[in-house]
Amino acid sequence: MRARAPLGVVVVGYGYWGPNIVRNVIERPELELIALCERDQTQAQRFRSRHPGIETWPDFDELLADARVDAVCIATPPRTHYELARKALEAGKHVLVEKPLATTVAHAEALVDLAQRKELVLMPGHTFLYSPPVNKIHALIESGELGEVYFVTSSRMNLGIYQADGVVRDLAPHDLSILLYWLDRRVASVSAAGCTVFNPEVPETAFLTLRFEDGPSANVQVSWLAPRKVRQMIVVGSRKMVQYDDTIPDGAVRIYDRGLDLEIGAPSNYGEHRLTYRSGDIVAPRIDAAEPLSLELGDFANSILTGARPRSHAELGLEVVRVLEAAQVSLSGAGEPVVLARGGEIVARSGSFAPDGGTA
Q1: What is the enclosing helix (H) or strand (E) of 275?
Q2: Domains and CATH numbers, the chain
Q3: Which of 92, 85, 81 is nearest to 119 (CA)?
Q4: Torsion sign across C-alpha atoms 297, 298, 299, 300
Q5: φ/ψ (deg, to 5) at 78
Q6: Which residues 6+ apart lie within 8 Å of 283 measured at CB?
Q7: Which of 102, 153, 280, 352 qualifies as a FRET site for 125, CA 20 to 30 Å off?
Q8: What CA–CA distance (Å, rounded) separates 256 from 149?
């Protein structure tokens, strides 16, 4: 492990997300952008016009042989993630790879194993884990202020960019990473239904239902076909509820002291009970602004320099891929629930569920 900064970084890909990574790498004092790897000469020229003096290379293998390179940031389509990350790890480079970590569980597991054997940092780019509003809600859940979390609903929709990998792999990783971070427990079962309009093999809209170990559940809606941008999550707890709306610059988090309370009857009429509505204050806490991607890259650098586990760690990225794969199985099975064992493998695909999310 190299124990000094700045760390030499290569960014791979300069399409949709690559320019954002490049800008933030340049701005982080712990990092030094050595070069961009980009085969598309139009994109490479776009980079050179913005960042004259920084090298561009079409050959990834040649860059990996450069001793100045300590780490690689991969911002290419998901189907390329495994091969690029594998090569970088085998060359002894630390890796940050955009979500998802890989397109199959087998590939994700192979990357995690390789990084562990090489004692290298492998970090999936789940940028929302570094969003100040997301971390505010994480603190509320962890402190117990919301009480027991019953369920979460999430909607992520837009008139979005059509991707060959499908809307589930494109958008759902954001919500899945947030849910795994907030709830801090594994997904026990997944069911998914999709809607296709233009290509039968590529759903543009999907609905996922997740059951987490020990009780909580979540419903996730993702779509490229919506008239406006929606990024909203609602957490329902036994004490309070929280709304997170990423489209609101100020007041993205609102805490509602609202809910239903169960009143048990007196001993003379034991067993009788009624629900009463509780409606208290609505609080919009002040949250300091920060760019999540910059914080993510700072965490990546810190992990390389100190050996600390990053917030968006490889095992979380692997769990996201496991849920994505289970969702794809459910989609192909007309929404039939898929049960995940503790090891992550699919152990059942039927409607025979026990109430706790296991198999009956």
Answers
A1: strand 273-283
A2: 7-128+292-312 (3.40.50.720), 132-290+321-348 (3.30.360.10)
A3: 92
A4: positive
A5: -55, -35
A6: 254, 255, 257
A7: 153
A8: 14
Average pLDDT of the residues in 292-296: 98
Measured CA to CA, the distance from residue 164 to residue 186 in angstroms comes to: 28
pLDDT at residue 334, rounded to an integer: 83
**Cα 233 from Cα 256, distance rounded (Å):** 13
Q: How confident is the model at residue 264 (pLDDT cuts 50, 70, 90)?
A: low
CA distance 99 to 259: 35
d(CA 75, CA 132): 23
Rounded Cα distance between 245 and 42, Å, is 36
CB 192 within 8 A of CB 208: yes
pLDDT given at position 115? 98
Give which of 223, 319, 139 is closest to 232, Cα–Cα. 223
pLDDT in tens, 11-69: 999 999 999 999 999 999 999 999 999 999 999 999 999 999 999 999 999 999 999 99
